[in-house]
Amino acid sequence: MASSQPATSQGKGKIGIIGSGLIGRSWAMIFASAGYNVTMFDIKESQLTGAMADITNQLAELQKSGTLRGALTAEQQRALISVTSDMKEAVTGAFHVQECVPENEELKKKVFSEMEQYADDAAVLCSSVSYIEPSKLFAHLKRRSQFIAAHPTNPPYYCPLVEIIPSPWTEQSVVSRTRTLLEEVGQVPVTVKKEIYGFALNRMQIAIVNEAWRLVADGVMSPEDVDKVFTAGLGMRYAFCGPFEVIHLNAEGIASYLERYGSTIQRVSSTFGPPPAFTGPVYDAIVQDNDAHYPLDKLQEMRGWRDARLVALAKLKKDMEDNKAL
Ligand SMILES: NC(=O)c1ccc[n+]([C@@H]2O[C@H](COP(=O)([O-])OP(=O)(O)OC[C@H]3O[C@@H](n4cnc5c(N)ncnc54)[C@H](O)[C@@H]3O)[C@@H](O)[C@H]2O)c1
Ligand SMILES: *[C@@H]1O[C@H](CO)[C@@H](O)[C@H](O)[C@H]1NC(C)=O
User: Fold this and answer.
1) Segment holding 161, helix H or strand E
2) For a FRET experiment, which of 88, 185, 198, 210 has its CA 20 to 30 Å from that of 9?
3) Is-contact 94 15, C-beta < 8 A?
């Protein structure tokens, strides 16, 4: 996380955030943690008020638990973040603008057209889009070479992966500046080299959700036990090893694994059913069961529970990296 500029409470450059919901707030905290001035815009005044209260609260909690990111205090980071109900004020003078409005193609396209009117000549204009291909979102823009997508993982403050997706028009320097900024603020960028609907992370997540659904729908396993397959099984390894590394270590290397299990994998693959419809009695049963186990009025509490565990996991990963002998 070496930076060319020292982080001071005076700030070291301005970043604009468009949309102050779940993701906009997280980006604001991440950029402020590295000493950047952040100006957040939203069309809803109540969202901006809620965002500042939420951020102030989160920063104080993080400081209290010793898990605040960066070298500045919660107070100093809070002072770097301001809000506005005027998009021009958020975008003008920013070297990076991060769009975080809802996942709606027409809305995003409209927001980008407005962003490019106010943006500095050299600004990087970046979307947090989760699924839609950048070429669909950026085609109509005059300054489309400056636009790029950077899809974070929820919750971004605790899960550092960001998928970078250039469009066919994105300048190479915009790709490298985005990557450098994300690395500097402590995220982990990966590049989606070729546009595809849903990028990589959500495509893999969807493959898992579909198979989990089919196993429950076919009466093979209960939803609670499906969750345990991850929390006590696959997830334990996946926190440290990717899917290729896992199979490499499960035999004498990946070639030996595929020699032993390749035809089995193909046979199992041929039994995967079609995509589930998410309707009907199975839908009712799964939703009912899930809502009973994880009550809807406790979501905020459960997110806190999850984040505390993600912090502990991140600390473990960092400690193990710092001490490679382990
Ligand atoms: N929630 C996730 O898990 C997640 C993860 C990664 C990426 N994303 C992506 O991030 C983006 C934002 O998602 P979110 O979960 O933060 O949504 P959200 O609904 O929490 O927040 C969206 C915010 O945008 C504001 N907004 C709406 N129209 C606007 C406009 N024209 N100008 C400015 N602000 C406007 C809303 O008032 C709201 O505050 C989406 O593209 C989403 O797919 C979400
Ligand atoms: C950045 O934020 C700090 C702290 O609020 C402030 O003193 C400084 O003037 C800001 N810099 C810019 C360029 O907005």
Assistant:
1) strand 161-166
2) 88
3) yes
One of 3.10.420.10, 3.40.640.10, 3.40.50.720, 1.10.10.10 is the CATH number of 14-191, namely: 3.40.50.720
Q: Whose CA is nearest to atom 8 of ligand 2?
A: 10
Q: Whose CA is nearest to atom 9 of ligand 2?
A: 10
Closest CA to 149 of 165, 171, 169: 165
Beta bridge partners of 127: 99, 149
Burial classification of residue 74, based on how many CB atoms lie within 10 Å of its CB (0-12 exposed, 13-18 middle, 19 or more buried): buried
The reported pLDDT for the residue numbered 7 is: 47
Residue nearest (by alpha carbon) to ligand 1 atom 8: 130
Using a 6 Å cutoff on CB, does residue 37 contact ligand 2?
A: yes
What would the pLDDT profile of 269-304 be if each residue is shown by its tens digit? Answer: 999 999 999 999 999 999 999 999 999 999 989 999
* Long-range Cβ contact pairs of 239-242 (< 8 A, separation 24 or more): 239/313, 239/317, 240/317
Phi, psi of 97 (to 5 degrees): -125, 130
Distance CA 165, CA 186 (A): 19
**Residue 6 scores a pLDDT above 90:** no
Determine contact, residues 112/125, Cβ cutoff 8 Å: yes
Q: How far is the CA of 47 from the centre of ligand 2 (A)?
A: 22
**What is the number of the ligand closest to the CA of 50?**
1
For the chain, residues classed under CATH 3.40.50.720 are: 14-191
Burial 2-22 (b: 16+ CB within 10 A, else e): eeeeebeeebeebbbbbbbbe
Q: Do 24 and 40 touch, CB atoms closer than 8 A?
A: yes
Q: Where in the chain is the domain with CATH 1.10.1040.10?
A: 201-293
pLDDT in tens, 38-68: 999 999 999 999 999 999 999 999 999 888 9
Nearest atom in ligand 2 to 37's CA: 1
Say how many C-beta atoms besides its own lie within 10 A of residue 124's C-beta.
Answer: 24
Ligand 2 pocket member 8 (CB < 6 A)? no
